[in-house]
Amino acid sequence: MNELKKLLPSREQREKFARLIRKSPSPVLARTNLARLIESGGLKPLKKISRQQLPSLLRLLGGSAYLSDILVREGRDWPDLFLRQIRAPAKTTSDHLAELSRTISEAPSADVLARALRRHKQREFLRIGARDLSSAPVEETMRELSALAEASLETACRACRSELEKDFGALRLPGTERKNRFVILGMGKLGGGELNFSSDIDILYLYEEDEGESDGGPKGRINPREFFHHLAERITRAVGEITEDGFVFRIDLRLRPLGRNGPLVQSLNSALLYYESWGQCWERAALIKARAAAGDRELGARFLHDIEPFVYRRYLDFTTIEELRHMKTRIQQELLSPQNQERNIKLGYGGIREIEFFTQALQLVNGGREPRVREHGTLSALELLARHGYIPPRENAVLSRAYRFLRNVEHKI
Fold first, then answer.
1. DSSP assignment of 120-137, as one string?
2. Residue 336 Cα distances to 69, 340, 349, angstroms
3. Could you tell me which residue, 400 or 46, shows the higher pLDDT?
4. What range defines the domain where residue 351 resides?
5. What's the confidence (pLDDT) of residue 26?
6. Contact in structure between 381 and 359 (CB atoms under 8 Å)
7. pLDDT score for 251
8. CA-to-CA dists, residue 62 to 38, 58, 129, 155, 254, angstroms
9. How many CB atoms lie within 10 A of CB 134?
10. Which of 4, 35, 107, 201 could be disulfide-bonded to 162 (CB atoms 3.0-4.6 Å)?
11. How does pLDDT run across 114-163, given as a tens digit for each residue?
12. What is the pTM of this model?
């Protein structure tokens, strides 16, 4: 770090700087990443960082190798990105969509779309990560990451459908001018608005009708099942494929009907028939968090309304209680070793998964008779369960505090 002596000529300045380094999450990591920044862009860019902004920079450099990598890749321009992002406020899905629409044409090539989505994700992870390291509330961080994922899926959905229509023409409902609709349901932590920095996104692809075929294009005509299968594949690649720019979010499709053995995308009626005929208790629990994350929200709302009697049964039998017990056993079996039972903040005893399971189990048991406890997010569901008398207020306070703490730790590591 001899180069810093040129920037900090006095001993007092260097001592103040050393104190800031020591206050960073990892002083060793902060020094290492600062050296990489200087090697990448030289000393001059550091002069753009004011005394007030320096603690934020060192927290980031000492708190995350991944976020530091984003800055290093910018070379001498890293201060512009850093200063722009740390000054930016929290953003909604609409904010992200507006920004992405300014950089992506209506029907970009697959490569252009993939690169734009990944660059946007990197910039936004830098902003959200800096806010998180500066003690932003964990709910805000989870909400922001979820909004970014939704906007990425929505942008990919629009762009990929436009590109697909160039090849095969628009896909309309028979006898109408209205397009056959498509929705991406967010499940798991995406559905709950509770993503972390390393979360996969669990999704389901659904379309409206099986009847009809596309208008036709250079590559001919295709039926809805083929059209939406192509669309789902393209969206999955646009968001989840690893390129030289990394990935946007890893996509997990295993929660779809029949899991890995099921079709990538299903019609609304096919999905409803599956759940009503063969749906299992764990799938009911998974659908508690389901919500429309991208595509046609009205179609998503229709599916969620129609599936409610399967998810929230008015009367429970002993079979349901036994299935809940088996679900709990499977969660415990995911632990790899006795040490993990105590150290694994996600799967260990009293960990994230146990709090989520407890909450969803109470929603399954009581949600059929009490619609007011039907809620996607864990923290808001706990609050509703307490408000309507299903858990004591003290239990809600203890579990909510523990959940916030564990999710905050999860973000940091």
1. HHHHHHHHHHHHHHTT--
2. 31, 6, 13
3. 400
4. 318-412
5. 93
6. yes
7. 98
8. 15, 6, 12, 33, 36
9. 13
10. 107
11. 999 999 999 999 999 999 998 899 999 999 999 999 999 999 999 999 99
12. 0.93
